[in-house]
Design goal:
Chains A, B: This is Putative competence-damage inducible protein. Chains A, B: Belongs to the CinA family. Chains A, B: Pfam families: CinA (PF02464), CinA_KH (PF18146), MoCF_biosynth (PF00994). The structure is a homodimer of 414-residue chains. The first copy, chain A, has 414 residues and is α/β, with parallel strands linked by helices. The first copy, chain A, has 3 domains: 170 residues, MoaB/Mog-like domain (Molybdenum Cofactor Biosythetic Enzyme, Chain A), CATH 3.40.980.10; 78 residues, Alpha-Beta Plaits (2-Layer Sandwich); 153 residues, Alpha-Beta Complex (Maf protein), CATH 3.90.950. Helix content of chain A is 41%, strand content 25%. Chain A contains 15 helices and 17 strands. In chain A, the strands form 4 sheets. The first copy, chain A, has a 6-stranded mixed beta sheet with strand order 2-1-3-8-7-6, sandwiched between helices. A 5-stranded mixed beta sheet of chain A has the order 14-13-15-16-17, with helices on both faces. In chain A, helix 2 packs parallel to helix 6, helix 3 crosses helix 4 and helix 10 packs parallel to helix 15. The longest helix of chain A has 21 residues. At the A-B interface, helix 1, helix 2, strand 2, helix 3 and helix 5 of A face helix 1, helix 2, strand 2, helix 3 and helix 7 of B. Strand 2 of chain A pairs antiparallel with strand 2 of chain B.
C-alpha cells in the first residue's frame, strides 16, 4: 500500500504556517509499513483541490488529507471529496452533540456555521476529535481509501494515533513492518557523533541510522524493516547496543521524551525532591518540570528572582555577594541554589543566573550562564556556560543543561 | 507568474525532517507578487521526480526545487532536470575552486564525488553558495524557468535572498506587489469572527481576508495586490479599519507578536510593574514575560507555589482558605494575587491555580482554572475558566487568558 499526504490550506501556500502534519503522518505511516511517495499542498480552491485529488488517485492507494474541515467558508475539503467520489454528506449525531457540548461548556454562543462541522460522508468511519470540534473520517470507494483529518496538529495527531491508525492496520493485508526508535543525546555535537559512528553510518542498509541535530540536542533514528516485528525490533536492539557502547554517556532517552521529562522520572524513582531559584530563565525550568503530570510528588515550588531585590528578599542572597561578585557569578548561583533548597526543604536546589541577551549584563556578554546545584549533605557545585544564539535559545539551552547536570547527579545515587 | 515549489528528498517522505523550505520560499514569493498554487515533496527517485516535474510544468511557469544538489548518489535533482529539458551539465570553474578551497581550509581530504557538486547546466545563471559547497542555478527553457536550490535551510535561504530573488525580479515583466498584514485576536472563536465579518469574507477579492485559528487564538491575514506598494498598504489599512470597527475589542496586535509581548509593551508604556504567583502554570507566565528583552523594567520576580505548603509558606495563603475552599477556588486565587503583589511591591499581582490534568484535582475536572488579578488600590478580581485539551494546552491557554485580562485592565488606565 502506498499513500499520498495532501495538505489543504492557502495559509500554507502563503508561507504563514509550516506543514508539520506531513512530517508527523509520514513517520506514523513508515512505522506501519505504508510507503509515502508524494506530499502535496494545495490551497482553499475547489478546482485545484480536485486536480490534486485526481493526480493522487493515479499514483496512490491511500489519500490522507489534512485541513479544511472547519466551520468557515474556505473549509472545503469534505465537500469537495464528497462531490468528487459521489458520497453525500449527512449529519453525524455524536459529532453534533459533541460540538453542542463544547459550546455549552465554554459558554460561547454557537453560531450556525458550526453545525457544518458535524457533516460526514455517508458510509464513512467517523474518527472522533478529542481535542476539537470537527470529526475526521475514513471512506473507501473503489480501489482508494480517503482519510480526512483536521488541520491543527493538536487535534490531528491524537485523532490519527487513536482512531485512524487502528483502522489502517485493519485494512492492510500484508505488512512489512518498519520499526524505528529514536535515541536522544545531549552534550555531544552532531559531527562528533557522526565521527564516532562513521563506519556504522557508511555500512548501514537495514537497519538505517539517521542522525539529526536541533535545539542543542542530537538524535539518532534507527529504522529496521522485516516481515516479523520481533525480528525488526531485534535488529534495532543490536544497532542500539553498538551505538551506546560508543556514545552512551551522552544518551538520555528515547523517542519524544525531553530532558525535563527524564528528570521528572528519575526524581520520582529516587523519591527525591527539588526546588529552583530562577533569574535568567524566569520560571522556564519550573514550567517545564511541572508540565509533567504528577510533578507534585517531587516539586513543591520555587522562586523567580529576576531583580537583585528579589534575590535578596525572596532567596536571602547576601547583599555583600551581589555587591562584590554581581548577580552573574558562581557565588550568587551557589547561594541561590543552596538557599532555595533550604527554603523549600528539598533534596536538590538548582539556580539559573546570567545574561540572556540581547544586551550584556554587568559586563558579561549575552550567553554567559551560571547554574548552581545544591544537594543536601553535599557541597554546592556551580557550572559556567558560554552559549550562543538568541535570548530564547540561551534560556532554553540553559534549562537543558540544568536538567543534564541533575540527571548526572541523580545517576550517582544508584 | 505562478510558481510551484518542489522539495526533493526521501528524508521528508520518511518524516525525518519538516519541509520548512516551502514556507520560507512561499513567503518570499508572495512578497514579490508570485502566486504559489502547489507545494510538492518527492523522494530521491528519478522516475517519480520526472513525474512531478511534468505535472508542475503543466500548471506553473516557475519551478523551484530544493534539495538533491549534494555529492552523494541519491542527489539527483540536477541530473534529472538536465536530462529532462535537454541541457547538458558542465563544470563551473568558480564553483569547483570554491569546493577545493573549502576542503583545503577544513583540512579534510576531498573525495572525488565532491567534484560533482560543481556541475551546472549549460546556459544557466549560477547562484553562488555562501554557506556550503553546492551552487544553485536558474535556467530558462521554452516557457518555463527552473530554479535549483540546496536543501539545508542555512544554505538555501541566503542563496535565495541574495542571488535568486534579484534574478526573479529581473525576469518579472511587471511587478505586482503583494502586501499582507496579520491581525491577532484573543477571546473570540474563529466561527464568531467569521460571522461578524461574513459579508466582507463573501465579497472579498482584493484585498483578501483569511481567518485562521490555532492555539486558542484567531488571526486574520489581510492581503492586497497592487502595482504600487503604497496603494496596496492603503487597501489593507481600509480593510483593517472596517474589521476593527466590528471586532476590535478582541484585537491585540500585529503579525508575529504574542499576548505576553504586548503585555510587556503596555506595562513598560504605563511605567507599571507586576508580580505573579503560579500554581497551575508552574512558572510559565513569568517565563513568557521574561522572554521579552528589558523585562526587568516592570518585573522583579514571583513565586511558583505548586504545593499547598508553598502557597501557605511562600505566599501566606491562609490555612483556613485552603481548608474551606481548596486550592482550586476564587478565594485562593484572590489571596495569591493580592499577597504576591504586596510581597514584591508591584502595581499588579496575578495568580493561576487550577487542575491542569490529566487527573481531576480536589474534585474539579481537568481544565478548571482560576485566575486572580489584584491591582493596587482596587478590589481583587477573579476569573474562572473551563478549558479543554491537553495538560500543556490548558496551561498555555491559561497564561494567554491572564495576559488578556491584564491588557484589558491596563487599557482602562489610558
Amino acid at each position: 500500500m502506498n499513500a499520498e499526504i495532501i495538505a489543504v490550506g492557502s495559509e500554507l501556500l502563503l508561507g504563514q504556517i509550516t506543514n508539520t502534519n506531513a512530517k508527523f503522518l509520514s513517520q506514523q505511516l513508515a512505522e506501519i509499513g505504508i510507503n509515502v511517495y508524494y506530499h502535496t499542498v494545495v490551497g482553499d480552491n475547489k478546482e485545484r483541490l480536485i486536480h490534486a485529488i485526481r493526480e493522487a488517485e493515479s499514483r496512490a492507494d491511500l489519500l490522507i488529507f489534512t485541513g479544511g474541515l472547519g466551520p468557515t467558508k474556505d473549509d472545503l475539503t469534505k465537500e469537495t471529496i464528497s462531490t468528487h467520489i459521489g458520497r453525500p454528506l449527512v449529519y453525524d449525531q455524536a459529532a453534533l452533540e459533541s460540538i453542542e457540548n463544547y459550546f455549552a461548556k465554554t459558554r460561547i454562543t454557537m453560531t450556525p456555521n458550526n453545525r457544518k462541522q458535524a457533516l460526514v460522508m455517508e458510509k464513512s468511519v467517523v474518527l472522533p476529535n478529542d481535542y476539537g470540534m470537527a470529526p475526521g473520517m475514513l471512506v473507501k470507494k473503489n480501489k482508494h481509501a480517503y482519510i480526512l483529518l483536521p488541520g491543527p496538529p493538536r487535534e490531528m495527531q491524537p485523532m490519527f494515533t487513536s482512531y485512524a491508525r487502528p483502522e489502517l492496520l485493519n485494512i492492510l493485508e500484508k505488512v512489512e513492518k518498519i520499526e524505528s526508535r529514536v535515541l536522544r543525546f545531549f552534550g555531544i555535537g552532531e559531527s562528533t557523533l557522526e565521527t564516532e559512528l562513521e563506519d556504522l553510518l557508511i555500512a548501514q542498509q537495514n537497519p538505517t541510522l539517521a542522525p539529526l541535530a536541533g535545539d542543542g540536542e542530537v538524535t539518532l533514528r534507527i529504522t529496521a524493516k522485516h516481515e516479523s516485528e520481533a525480528a525488526a525490533l531485534q535488529m534495532i536492539q543490536q544497532a542500539e547496543e553498538e551505538v551506546l557502547r560508543r556514545v552512551g554517556e551522552y544518551f538520555y532517552g528515547y523517542n519524544d521524551t525531553t530532558l525535563a521529562r527524564e528528570l521528572a522520572v528519575h526524581l520520582k524513582k529516587h523519591n527525591s525532591s527539588i526546588a529552583a531559584a530562577e533569574s535568567l530563565t524566569g520560571g522556564l525550568f519550573q514550567s517545564e518540570l511541572t508540565d509533567v503530570p504528577g510533578a507534585s510528588s517531587f516539586f513543591s515550588g520555587g522562586i523567580v528572582c529576576y531583580s537583585n531585590e528579589a534575590k535578596k528578599e525572596l532567596v536571602k542572597v547576601k547583599e555583600e555577594t551581589l555587591a562584590r561578585y554581581g548577580a552573574v557569578s558562581a557565588e550568587c548561583a551557589a547561594e541561590l541554589a543552596e538557599n532555595v533548597r533550604r527554603l523549600l526543604g528539598a533534596e536538590f536546589g538548582i539556580s539559573f543566573t546570567g545574561a540572556a541577551g540581547p544586551e550584556p549584563l554587568e559586563g558579561h556578554p549575552p550567553g554567559t550562564v551560571w547554574i548552581g546545584l545544591s544537594r543536601k549533605g553535599k557541597e554546592t557545585e556551580t557550572f559556567k556556560l558560554s552559549l550562543s544564539g538568541s535570548r530564547a535559545g540561551v534560556r532554553k539551552r540553559a534549562v537543558k543543561y540544568g536538567c543534564h547536570y541533575l540527571l548526572a547527579e541523580l545517576s550517582q545515587k544508584t
